[in-house]
């Protein structure tokens, strides 16, 4: 790929500014921690849900979230058998939760979506101004988050790419599955696809080499430590095998390559983007992919043969392709030499307005809230308060009970920016090498 020098340097500067603006800091993490405990305390007021455990997942756990990102939370209802509950029971539990949130006045814009593939409640936290998506017993989401957390430790460019791509997609209105465009999970998979079998040398391995399982079939036996051990062992092997062959592509060039990757003559109607294998696959080669036609097929590597981009419609796909084409043309062709135009193309107006304020002094005197943030643990903020008695339900094992429980009332600070951080003190704050050392 050929860049004009001026445009490339401009892109590099804009990327640095965008990342310094959207990456969360300690205050953002604390807000989310308290929003989770706020939810747990609301659940405690519902007799039918008392004893449930509140577990964050998604981008917060995988450390792939931006300051403006949503917070995904699973309310895990204890069952000795771990057999999936019925959709009706799932819906009824969410109705009880919605009532509790409204009674306690902790939420606004509460929306109950009972007939979604995974029923959820969406709301805004009044105190912390965070958008929350709540589901019941979302073990697949928790497993995927753990895997993504470890993937994110392989190379820092992956996390930066995910944040940049999601910010760009939001600015182009193509990150909204409700309206037939891409969800954030499929955008992450597209970044992985570029970083695995489609760059040389590969930054990431095909995902089958990290976790070769189907989480939909494994939730009954789900154990976080077991998932961690599999991921760490496989990632360590990949790093050993590729020692001395690290991909040296700069982040701006990798970002620019992302848009050209999905151009070309490949047939969307007969091709699957597979991060499981790290390459394009033909739909006719796998009968399970033929069950339902899709406009765009991005295979879910952890719930095969599901399509992570199943919400994308035919008309919306054309819009998505135009956005990719336009972005690639402007960057590769060197036609965009104006910083303000580039900012408007790469990020949302809210982020663009912040960038305008730091333009003149990009590298010095950066406000503390805009400093680049060093990744922290996936579960650093888990609270392991256990109820003194569960009656006839018994007790959970330690691997199942980590999380925010509903049997504890938190003491709330007067202002969210001055709290003590919750810390479960688990292994999850460690790097791969530290994790391996701790296990002898």
Distance, first to last CA: 45 Å
In N-to-C order, the SSE pattern is HHEHEHEEEHHHHHHEEEHHHHEH
The strand line-up of the biggest sheet is 3-4-5-2-1-9
Mean pLDDT: 80
Region (Disordered): 384-440
InterPro entries: MTPAP-like_central, NT_sf
Domain Poly(A) RNA polymerase mitochondrial-like central palm: 13-149
Biased composition (Low complexity): 389-407
Structure description:
This is Poly(A) RNA polymerase mitochondrial-like central palm domain-containing protein. Residues 389-407 have a biased composition (Low complexity). This protein is 41% helix and 10% strand. The chain is built from 15 helices and nine strands. Helix 1 (5-22) crosses helix 13. The protein is globular, with a radius of gyration of 22 Å. The chain starts with a helix and ends with a helix. The relative contact order is 0.17.
Chain-wise SSE layout:
Layout: H1 5-22, H2 26-44, E1 53-57, H3 59-62, E2 71-76, H4 87-104, E3 107-113, E4 120-125, E5 131-136, H5 139-151, H6 156-171, H7 184-195, H8 215-218, H9 224-241, H10 251-261, E6 271-274, E7 279-282, E8 298-299, H11 314-332, H12 339-346, H13 349-358, H14 398-401, E9 404-405, H15 432-438
Parallel strand pairs: 2-5, 6-8
Antiparallel strand pairs: 1-2, 1-9, 3-4, 4-5, 6-7
Helix pairs in contact: 1-13, 5-9, 6-7, 9-15, 10-11
InterPro entries: MTPAP-like_central, NT_sf
Protein name: Poly(A) RNA polymerase mitochondrial-like central palm domain-containing protein
Pfam families: MTPAP-like_central (PF22600)
């Amino acid at each position: 790929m050929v860049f004009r020098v001026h445009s490339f340097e401009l892109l590099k500067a804009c990327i640095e500014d965008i990342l310094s603006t959207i990456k969360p800091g300690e205050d953002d993490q604390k807000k989310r921690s308290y929003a989770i405990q706020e939810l747990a305390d609301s659940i405690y007021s519902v007799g039918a849900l008392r004893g449930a455990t509140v577990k964050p997942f998604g981008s917060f756990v995988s450390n792939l979230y931006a300051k403006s990102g949503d917070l995904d939370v699973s309310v895990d209802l204890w069952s000795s058998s771990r057999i999936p509950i019925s959709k009706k029971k799932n819906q009824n539990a969410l109705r009880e939760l919605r009532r509790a949130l409204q009674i306690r006045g902790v939420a606004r814009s509460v929306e109950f979506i009972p007939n979604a593939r995974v029923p959820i409640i969406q709301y805004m936290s009044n105190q912390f101004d965070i958008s929350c998506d709540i589901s019941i017993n979302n073990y697949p989401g928790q497993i995927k988050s753990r895997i993504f957390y470890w993937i994110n430790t392989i190379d820092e460019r992956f996390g930066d790419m995910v944040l940049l791509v999601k910010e760009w997609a939001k600015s182009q209105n193509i990150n909204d599955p409700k309206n037939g465009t891409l969800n954030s999970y499929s955008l992450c998979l597209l970044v992985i696809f570029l970083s695995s079998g489609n760059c040389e040398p590969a930054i990431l391995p095909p995902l089958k080499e990290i976790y070769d399982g189907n989480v939909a079939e494994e939730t009954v036996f789900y154990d976080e430590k077991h998932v961690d051990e599999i991921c760490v062992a496989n990632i360590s092997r990949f790093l050993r095998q590729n020692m001395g062959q690290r991909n040296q592509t700069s982040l701006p060039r990798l970002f620019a390559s992302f848009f050209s990757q999905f151009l070309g003559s490949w047939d969307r109607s007969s091709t699957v983007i597979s991060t499981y294998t790290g390459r394009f696959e033909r739909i006719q080669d796998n009968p399970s992919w033929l069950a339902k036609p899709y406009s765009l097929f991005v295979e879910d590597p952890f719930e095969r043969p599901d399509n992570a981009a199943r919400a994308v419609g035919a008309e919306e796909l054309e819009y998505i392709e135009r956005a990719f084409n336009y972005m690639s043309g402007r960057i590769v062709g060197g036609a965009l030499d104006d910083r303000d135009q580039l900012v408007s193309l790469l990020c949302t107006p809210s982020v663009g307005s912040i960038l305008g304020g730091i333009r003149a002094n990009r590298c010095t005197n950066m406000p503390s809230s805009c400093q680049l943030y060093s990744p922290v643990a996936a579960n650093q903020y888990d609270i392991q308060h256990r109820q003194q008695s569960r009656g006839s339900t018994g007790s959970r094992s330690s691997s199942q009970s980590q999380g925010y429980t509903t049997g504890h009332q938190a003491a709330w600070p007067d202002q969210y920016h001055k709290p003590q951080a919750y810390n479960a003190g688990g292994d999850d704050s460690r790097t791969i090498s530290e994790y391996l050392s701790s296990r002898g």
